[in-house]
Structures are given as C-alpha cells and as structure tokens.
Specification:
The protein is of the alpha+beta class and 261 residues long. It is built from 8 helices and 11 strands. Helix content is 34%, strand content 19%. Helix 3 packs parallel to helix 7, helix 6 runs antiparallel to helix 7 and helix 6 crosses helix 8.
C-alpha cells in the first residue's frame, strides 16, 4: 500500500479528522479505497450505466441494516456529487482473510468463515428488505450485458473465450428449479472478511447483500478458499458449514452467475 492523500468532500470533513491515509489495493471493484488508523474511505466514480444496486448508497443502507445483527463497519458518513460517491466507515480492527499473515492460519480461518456465514444465513429472511433473489440477479445480468458492463476478459479459466451472451444462455439452461433463500453477503470472498485472532471482526464490501440462495455465498467462499489457501480448504469449509445443505450443481450455477458482475 502507498501513502495517499484522498480528496475529502467538505461534507465529510467533520467526520474524517486529519489523518495519514494509505491506499488499499485489495479487491476488484474499481473503487478507490483509503484507510487511516480509524476510518476507511471508499470512493466510487459516477457511471451513468451503473445499476441502483451497484451504488455506495446501496452499500450504506445495507451496512446500517446489518449493524447490530452481525459485525460490520459503522457508517461514519456518506456524500454524493456529480463526480463520485463517498462512503466513510469506521475501520474494523484486524486483517482480511486473504492477507499473507492470515494464510498461516488457513485451517482456523476456514472454520471461522463457515461459522460466520452460518450466523449470517440464520438471520430472519422476513426482516431483510433487500431482494437479491435469482429473479432480480438475472434481470440485472441482462441489463449489464446490454450496457456492455460484463468483462469477458475476466471470466474464469473454464469460460475463457465465452461471450456475455454465452453466459446468459448457459444461465437460462441450467437455472435451478428452487432457491434456498437466506440472508446472503453476496460476495463472500476472503478479502471481504476481517479476522483478528480467533474471531471474525467484521464483514466488509456488503453492497450485494440480500435475500438469495445460500449457494451464492457458498460458491464464492469455496472458490476464494481454493485460490487463497489451496486445494482441500473448500472441502473443509463445507464440512463445517454442513454438507446436508450443499448442492454442488447450484455452487457451479452461482459461480457462473458471478461472471455477470
């Protein structure tokens, strides 16, 4: 990470005191992210093609709803102007699960991730106001394809050479007949889980949170565990999470759906 001096809008200067900032280069969202000893500032440039669910405003609302239910950063402030959105959050102590220091505790973190997602998935669906069901996600996938927002060069290795149209066609062909609906994180990869010792201190990057099939999270968590920790950790995760709840075909389907994000 490099030292940085982010532009802080006047509206946020009263909640973000003068500090030494550093840029954070983890993740693939395209946001500019900075952190100080006490805060994290996320900046998302305006894009007229962006869907309402892809705004920092949407992430702010999800953080507010999650607060007190599962560990997440507190919202310090939000600002929007013609150029960008700005979301200021309290910094969660610890390191993300993909950090090199976390890899040395891969087995423990795998167990912690499975238990943390079980806790999230146990929240009452009726209380969650955010719909991330397959009906919504497939509609958004079509809109993103029409807007040219799907990066065909970033597909998983098994789908290199595919087009966005190919992905949509395969999603239609393999769509599950039912959904096992729970409150999902939506992007349950290791960089989005902050850990300190034997505790998960918080989920971050919750902009895709909503009621959806639990396999949305299982698909991305197992893929991320294999990528960051190596072969075998996905199986350990599923053992702890609960094999009786797992459908391998739906794990494959939701990894395919993730190509559209």
């Amino acid at each position: 990470m490099d030292d940085a001096n982010p532009f802080i809008p006047e509206a946020l200067r009263n909640v973000l005191p003068a500090a030494r900032w550093e840029s954070v280069n983890v993740g693939e969202s395209g946001d500019r992210v900075y952190r100080s000893s006490r805060h994290v500032l996320k900046v998302r440039p305006r894009d007229a093609r962006r869907l309402p669910s892809e705004t920092l405003f949407a992430e702010r609302e999800r953080l507010r709803w999650l607060r007190g239910r599962v560990p997440v950063p507190g919202v310090a402030g939000y600002h929007s102007d013609a150029e960008a959105e700005y979301l200021a959050m309290e910094r969660v102590r610890g390191i993300d699960m993909s950090h090199p220091d976390a890899v040395t505790h891969a087995r423990r973190n795998t167990d912690l991730l499975a238990r943390a997602l079980r806790e999230l998935h146990a929240l009452p669906v009726r209380d969650c106001p955010f719909d991330a069901s397959l009906r919504v996600r497939l509609h958004e996938a079509r809109l993103r394809a029409e807007a040219g927002l799907i990066d065909e060069d970033d597909f998983d290795e098994a789908r290199l050479g595919w087009t966005a149209r190919d992905v949509l066609a395969e999603l239609a062909r393999t769509r599950p007949e039912r959904e096992d609906l729970v409150v999902t994180h939506g992007d349950a990869c290791l960089p989005n889980v902050i850990v300190s010792g034997e505790y998960v201190e918080g989920f971050v990057d919750v902009g895709r949170l909503g009621v959806a099939d639990r396999h949305v999270d299982l698909a991305l968590a197992t893929r991320s565990l294999t990528f960051n920790y190596g072969a075998g950790y996905a199986e350990l995760f599923l053992d702890t999470y609960g094999r009786a709840l797992v459908d391998p075909a739906r794990i494959d389907f939701y990894r395919l759906l993730d190509e559209t994000v």
